[in-house]
Design brief:
CATH architecture of the largest domain in chain B: 3-Layer(aba) Sandwich
Strand order of the largest sheet of chain B: 6-7-8-3-9-10
CATH topology of one domain in chain A: MetI-like fold
Shape of chain A: flat
CATH superfamily of one domain in chain A: MetI-like
Number of strands of chain B: 10
Shape of chain B: globular
Helix content of chain B: 25-40%
Structural class of chain A: mainly alpha
Number of helices of chain B: 10
CATH class of one domain in chain A: Mainly Alpha
CATH superfamily of the largest domain in chain B: P-loop containing nucleotide triphosphate hydrolases
Order of helices and strands of chain B: EEEHEEEHHHHEHEHEEHHH
Bound molecules: adenosine-5'-triphosphate, magnesium ion
Radius of gyration of chain A: 25 Å
CATH class of the largest domain in chain B: Alpha Beta
Number of strands of chain A: 0
Number of helices of chain A: 11
Structural class of chain B: alpha/beta
Largest sheet of chain B: 6 strands, mixed
CATH topology of the largest domain in chain B: Rossmann fold
Distance between the termini of chain A: 33 Å
Strand content of chain A: under 5%
Distance between the termini of chain B: 38 Å
Strand content of chain B: 15-25%
Radius of gyration of chain B: 18 Å
Largest sheet of chain A: none
Oligomer: heterodimer
Chain lengths: 293, 261
């Protein structure tokens, strides 16, 4: 790598230059790779190392007593809290039930949002009439933080499951619908023309050309959407919940049970991350052609 | 199927501060059943625009286009298109791409695979039926595009530089294949190319177009494709003196156009 640098440069300049060079040009390809694909390369080892380093520093800070356990409990404390709540439960409900109920709320809202949002988004992409009608309301409520309209949800729909699921639903719905709408534009006009020149009807063009080519964007929108869903979960479970991870975190925070709070956060993150991995897997299986043509 | 274009003009309106483009001005063209019309001309002279007009993807700003007397109002299955940019569907494999037109027309799976299989073989793609199209080379993708249009058995076949990405040998084979299919089925063909030799060899009629505004500058009637169909070898035709002299004549016209720039 350093060969390209002037041989007169001092040694340290050569190393720095060699290190900098990786930013100015792509590294050479390995067999089976394509030169210059952005961000190409494995990251698993690096990611695991980061996590390990993070936990190590965390452990070190708490083990040396630099921070009070009230602010940052040790990793072991979180683990034992996890085992404790897993077996004994929190406020009389076992952990898996809290997690299950939260997951049911988020995934229920997510499925509902996809079932309505994807067709509506497609219709918005296809028809100026539908787009004209639905664009303003969606764009209007989309940037509002769910906490801001949470009181309205309670006033209108009470403190039962409806307002909880609806709150999450609304946060997932906008990105999914807008993603599907944008996805309609992904089909090349030549592909659409080809279908028409083979005698396709408008419906067939939608079904066989526009929908498949919108699929990558729809899947991405779903991944973004479910992210918003998890973000909104805690807000939703502020409403008179007696079960759920969000409820657990909120209640624990009132009693300054920091370990439970952090444990709850980790559980939410773990479920969300596992689902995202599943979605990425589905993406690879369903749209292997993404970005290839 | 007789296609008549009379006094058709296409103007792309001004946008983002660019002046309007007069892509075609007062074009007259008739394609009789069994005609093989080849369009030749410098890049940007309106060949693709003319093809889009015939296919029904564009409406003329003035003038009209008639198919067997009825005005063309949009695309339909009697005019299949092979596109300049492949326009294949990456989520389908080769055979499903080739059979796509038949699927839209409701042909049962077995039947359409049978037809598709035949054209895949004719275009030298046998063995790639299950390959994803994005894993094929540019020339192979073009051949898939040709096979896809042929399976639909259109009365008028519209081809926009369909052989541009093929190597010399495959290209000659594809030329001969298209000619044979054209002869056997009695289709009309509208064919765009940048290769003068290809144009002369394949067409029964050659239109040479000029840019700014796009228009048909010259028309030639060509005997060579008929001679090929009557059994004369392609290489011999391309080396014959009347072929060579016509090629020089057409090249002179095209170069003169470029000089004007
Ligand atoms: N959608 C469009 N909007 C504006 N101008 C256009 C559009 N399509 C084509 N043109 C213009 O019309 C002219 C003719 O374009 P066309 O694509 O028909 O050329 P062509 O003869 O097919 O060229 P090539 O051989 O490079 O494919 C060009 O000047 C082009 O810039
Ligand atoms: Mg063109």
């Amino acid at each position: 790598m350093t060969d390209h640098i002037s041989t007169k440069a001092p040694a340290w300049r050569q190393t720095v230059g060699g290190w900098m060079a990786q930013f100015s040009r792509s590294r050479p390809t390995r067999p089976g790779e394509t030169y210059g694909v952005p961000g190409q390369g494995e990251t698993v080892v690096l990611s695991l190392a980061t996590i390990a380093a993070f936990i190590f520093v965390w452990w070190l800070v708490t083990a040396l007593g630099l921070v009070k356990p009230l602010f940052v409990p040790s990793p072991q404390a979180i683990l034992s809290k996890f085992v404790d709540i897993l077996t004994a439960g929190f406020t009389g409900t076992p952990l898996w039930e809290h997690a299950g109920i939260s997951a049911a709320r988020v995934f229920g809202a997510f499925l509902l949002a996809c079932a309505i949002g994807v067709p509506l988004g497609l219709a918005m992409g296809m028809s100026p009439l539908v787009r004209g009608i639905f664009d303003p309301p969606i764009e209007f409520y989309r940037p509002i933080p769910p906490l801001a309209y949470l009181p309205l949800m309670i006033i209108w729909f009470g403190i039962g499951e409806v307002s909880k699921v609806l709150l999450i639903f609304l946060s997932v719905f906008a990105p999914v619908a807008l993603g599907a709408k944008a996805g309609v534009r992904s089909a090349a006009i030549e592909q659409i023309h080809a279908a028409y020149s083979f005698g396709a009807s408008r419906w067939q063009v939608l079904r066989y050309v526009i929908l498949p080519s919108a699929l990558p964007e729809i899947l991405t929108a779903m991944r973004i959407g479910i992210g918003f869903g998890w973000t909104t979960l805690v807000a939703a479970e502020m409403v008179a919940a007696t079960k759920g991870i969000g409820y657990m975190v909120l209640t624990a925070s009132q009693f300054l049970q920091t370990a439970t709070v952090i444990m709850g956060i980790i559980v939410i993150a773990a479920i969300a991350y596992a689902f995202d991995l599943l979605m990425r897997f589905i993406e690879r299986r369903v749209v292997p052609w993404k970005g290839r043509m | 199927m007789a296609l008549e274009i009379s006094q058709a003009s296409v103007e792309f309106p001004a946008a983002n501060g660019r002046p309007p483009v007069e892509a075609l001005r007062r074009v007259d063209l008739t394609i009789e059943p069994g005609d093989f019309t080849v369009a030749l001309g410098a890049s940007g002279c309106g060949k693709s625009t003319l093809l889009n007009l015939i296919a029904g993807f564009l409406a003329p700003s003035s003038g009209d286009i008639r198919l067997d007397g009825a005005a063309v109002e949009g695309p339909s299955a009697d005019r299949s298109v092979v596109f300049q940019k492949h326009a294949l569907l990456p989520w389908l494999n080769v055979i499903d791409n080739v059979a796509f037109g038949l699927k839209l027309q409701g042909t049962p799976k077995e039947q359409r695979y049978e037809v598709a299989e035949k054209f895949i073989g004719l275009l030298g793609l046998a063995g790639f039926e299950k390959s994803p199209v994005y894993s094929l080379s540019g020339g192979m993708q073009q051949r898939v595009g040709i096979a896809r249009a042929l399976t639909c058995d259109p009365k008028l076949l519209l081809m926009d530089e369909p052989l541009g990405a093929l190597d010399a040998l495959t290209r000659e084979r594809a030329q001969e294949l298209i000619l044979r299919i054209w002869k056997d089925t009695g289709k009309s063909v509208f064919f765009i190319t940048h290769s003068v030799e290809e144009a002369l060899f394949m067409g029964t009629r050659l239109i040479v177009m000029s840019p700014r505004p796009g228009r048909i500058a010259h028309t030639f009637d060509l005997p060579f494709s008929q001679r090929f169909c009557d059994g004369e070898p392609a290489r011999q035709i391309k080396a014959s003196s009347d072929f060579v002299s016509l090629r020089e004549e057409v090249l002179a016209i095209i170069f003169a156009d470029e000089e004007e720039e």
